[in-house]
Each structure stands twice: as C-alpha cells, then as structure tokens.
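In the present case, backbone shapes were mapped to integers, as reproduced here:
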Amino acid sequence: MAVYRQLHTSFWQDPFIIERTPEEKYFYIYLMTNPKTRQCGCYEISKTVMVMETGFNLETVNKLLERFINYGKIEYCERTNEILIKNWLRYNSHKSPRVRQCIEREIRDIKHKKFADFVSSRLTIDYVESMATEQQKEKEKEKEEEEVKEEVTTTEREALNILRSIPNYKFKYAEDLDFIRTLAVDYPSLDIVYQLKKWRDYKRDKPLTAKSSPRSQLRNWFKKAAEFEQERRPRQNKPIELWSKAEREALGL
C-alpha cells in the first residue's frame, strides 16, 4: 500500500521556513517525508541512509541535524539512530481512532524512552485540546440556536427537526431556518412539513453523500411539487373544502 505524507501549502509562508536557506528547506522537507517516517513523528534512520537519499555528505548531514536541534524542531539519538520531529502531531491529523491506535502501537516500538514519553504526552495534550475545541464549537452551536429559538414557530421547529434527522444532511440551524422560511414564501401553497417528510422518505432509498447539495435538491423537489400541484388541481371551479382526501394528500394539503 502506498504511503503519503502531507505538506501543507502554508509551509512556505511559515516565518521559520522563510528565513531558512534552500539547503535547510530541502533537508527539513526530507525529514518530514522520507520513507522511514512514521505516523507518530518519531522514526529510526541512520546518517548513512540520510547521506545516500539526500545526496549530502556526512559532514553536511551532521551540520544540518545540529542546526535543527538548536532550532528546537527535532531531536536525534545517536545511540538508537532515532529522530523525533517535535511538531509532527500538531500538523498531522490524528483524530481518527484508527490513526490514534496506529500511533499508540508505534510508541511502543520507540527505543529511546525520552522520545516515547514526549510523543505520548503530546498525543494526550493534542487530544485534550481537540476535545476542548469540539466542546466549544458545540456550545457556540447551542448558543446560536438559543438566540433564534424564541422566534421559531411550531411548524418551523418541526421542519428543522426533520432536516436534522436526515442522514448526511449537513444541518446548520440558522441557515436551515432561513432556508425553510424562504421555501414557505416561494411555495405558499405547499405544506412544508409534509413535503420535507416525503423528501426524507425518498432519501432513505437514495441517501445523500458527502458531495450532495441537499438544499439545491430540496428546492428542486419543492419546485416539482408545486408544478405537480398546478397540474393536478381540478379544472372545475370546485371549492377546496369539497376536494377528496386523495386529492388533498397528493398535493400535500
């Protein structure tokens, strides 16, 4: 299986990188992307391999390693031939449970205890910070909902709950509240809740994907429903009170 290492485009705007020489930039990228790198940011690599793969001589490799150690970016253990990239976990996502499990396995293979302890502590710190960020986002979302909750009608609340229940629908409270209000204005003859329930049922057989545009799909659904209503509306001038149950249900009335 192929292994890829990501290098964010912001790398080139980093003040630290801007001040580095071309030689240093090349070597730092090599340290982050060479075949020996591992998911935890600590890996075993000899200076002989570095010489062979970079094209630098041993003196240059030693000089560059010392520079990046002094910069506070890496650590190198001569005894175990292990290198530690200190900011690795900060720039490589490890939120996935599978990735975290992989890192935890790799930590057990690190020979230099100081490096193993560093990666383990960094993993814990980043996880706590990540959880705090997620909790903050959730609080902001709840606050946003609270700010507009008093203005929401029973019908609007029911419509929002329907959208929230649809798998893979990227629900956004304020945006979707505005969306269903727009639909209500554009299609006053349609029952919003009824049509949303029908669309939800339809999506059970044809579920949304990550690339779907659900709001565009919904607008097309309402447009077709309105056209269908126009076609099905009895031509005779019969009061709506006299319509049959089937006629009403067909139009979402």
Q: What stands out?
A: Residues 113-149 form the longest helix (37 residues). The chain is about 60% helix and 5% strand.
